[in-house]
Design goal:
Elements (H helix, E strand, L loop, with lengths): L24 H13 L19 H18 L7 H16 L8 H6 L11 E8 L9 E9 L3 H9 L6 E9 L9 E2 L16 E4 H19 L5 H8 L1 H18 L18 H24 L3 H17 L10 H15 L3 E4 L2 E4 L1 H22 L4 H13 L23 H4 L12 H15 L15
Helix pairs in contact: 1-2, 2-3, 6-8, 6-10, 6-15, 8-9, 8-10, 9-10, 9-11, 9-12, 10-11, 12-13
Length: about 475
């Protein structure tokens, strides 16, 4: 696993936090105890003592005792999390005392407030029963050691241009099995709680994992397609630290964009049932806003701005469309749409089995796509929900061919308009916009590379000794 050393501890905090926490016996004991509990947990986080190989209630209690003892051992090295660790041990003890039913870690979740003091290199020990988005769908007990990525230049941008007080750029130091997956986020809404808090106060993105898998997949796609990259883009693929800083900036701008702009709906679409192309357009809008703002930063002399633009283009057109299942793959849809838009507007070409990109033209065209999506949103404010969905479908279908069996592609006359809009989502095919011939071929070439990025960390991309 990655071992990232912290900088000098600020304000007189314990210098012991500078060492690798994952090397300490307490962390190894904690991790082993968590891994022993996880296999016996049901999807809701409760323990099934009748399952094969499950511990007895007494054995489960002893495992929780080990977790609590390890947290107490490590907590003095992380004084900024003392209140959280105290609440965590209380939640663990209550879960055990009440017989290991559905866990409730609301008290410790509310006590964990890492965004209140963001400092580069600051470490956190995080333990919760939770699912890992794009990873494990069950609410298992998980433990993860993280460090913040918060360089001075990023802190200044957040303060002056991209206010996002809840955002955390983080890196892995070590983790339990739920993060040995494709998950690259640490979100509070994934934690098992008795009730959803009125508001969340933080959200973390693992920029080291995002950077590492981008570098591996983009480099492989470059080779497969014969794409010639500019020198500065090539540099992005060979420098993990530079790439991490690129992704933390991209993610910070993307994240805040969900609640900025002309929004005809709840920006996070919480508890709303919508066709998956609506989610695809929203995620793409946020990425294209990051692309647009990155261009302004580059013009102001910030080198990370141009890096973000390269990363958005390369990640979106290479990795997104061929990653994950085809069922309602909204991120894949956004990548397909960006590629098709660039191709239609002559910013990229696939000729003689080689891909070529006019990078200046690609920047202009990408900003134009953002403008079209923004216009769709502005008009959507004055439209009924179903009309907005249909207009969005028409826009996507103007660049991506719908499935031949699609009901939505036939237009409103083919839909039962007596049904409420949410019921019409049932008529959306799992793969409403199938992959093009280009992506069918690219997906086969990149399949093993994409699969190899499961659980990847920065350490997995380090140059090997000769």
């Amino acid at each position: 696993m990655t071992e990232i050393l912290a900088p000098v501890a600020p304000d007189g905090e314990s210098g012991a936090a500078e060492e690798s926490l994952s090397a300490r016996p307490a962390w190894r004991a904690l991790k082993a105890a968590v891994e022993a509990l996880r296999p016996a947990q049901r999807a809701d986080g409760s323990i099934d003592f009748a399952a094969d190989g499950a511990p007895t209630p007494a054995e489960a209690g002893r495992l929780v005792d080990r977790v609590i003892a390890a947290v107490r051992d490590l907590s003095p090295l992380l004084p900024h999390d003392a209140a959280y660790h105290a609440a965590l041990t209380a939640d663990l003890r209550r879960w055990a005392d009440e017989g290991f039913g559905v866990p409730d870690f609301l008290d410790s979740l509310l006590a964990f407030r890492p965004a209140e003091r963001r400092e580069d290199g600051r470490a956190h020990l995080v333990v919760f029963p939770m699912y890992t988005q794009n990873g494990n769908p069950d609410r298992n007990l998980e433990a993860v050691l993280v460090r913040l990525v918060w360089p001075d230049w990023l802190a200044e941008l957040e303060r002056t241009r991209f206010d996002n007080p809840m955002f955390l750029g983080i890196t892995f130091e070590d983790f339990t099995a739920g993060y040995d997956t494709n998950s690259a986020v640490l979100f509070p809404e994934t934690v098992a709680v008795r009730e959803v808090p009125e508001r969340f106060t933080w959200g973390g993105i693992f920029c080291d994992r995002e950077a590492a898998r981008f570098r591996r997949v983009a480099a492989a796609a470059r080779d497969v397609t014969g794409l010639l990259l500019p020198e500065d883009a090539e540099g992005l693929l060979t420098d993990q630290r530079r790439c991490q800083e690129t992704f933390v900036l991209w993610d910070m701008i993307h994240d805040r964009t969900h609640s900025h702009g002309d929004l005809p709906f709840d920006p996070f679409m919480i508890k709303q049932r919508q066709p998956f192309w609506m989610y695809g357009l929203e995620e793409l809008r946020c990425d294209l806003t990051a692309f647009h703002e990155a261009g302004r930063l580059a013009a102001d002399g910030l080198p990370q701005g141009r890096d973000v633009q390269y990363a958005v283009l390369l990640d979106r057109i290479f990795r997104f469309p061929v990653t994950g299942a085809r069922v309602r793959n909204y991120d894949g849809l956004g990548g397909q749409l960006l590629f098709a838009y660039l191709h239609r507007h002559d910013a990229l070409r696939w000729t003689d089995n080689r891909l070529s990109v006019d990078w200046d033209r690609a920047r202009e065209v990408t900003v134009a796509l953002r403008g079209e999506i923004e216009d769709l949103y502005r008009r959507g404010i004055d439209r009924p929900k179903l009309v907005h969905w249909l207009k969005a479908y028409e826009f996507v279908a103007g660049y991506l061919a719908p499935h031949p069996g699609s009901t939505w592609a036939k237009g409103p006359d083919a839909l039962d308009l007596a049904l409420p809009p949410r019921k019409l989502v049932d008529d959306v095919l799992p793969d409403e916009f199938p992959l093009s011939l280009f992506y069918e071929a690219l997906g086969k070439k990149l399949r093993k590379v994409v699969e190899s990025t499961r659980g990847i960390t920065a350490a997995d991309t380090a140059p090997r000794a000769a």
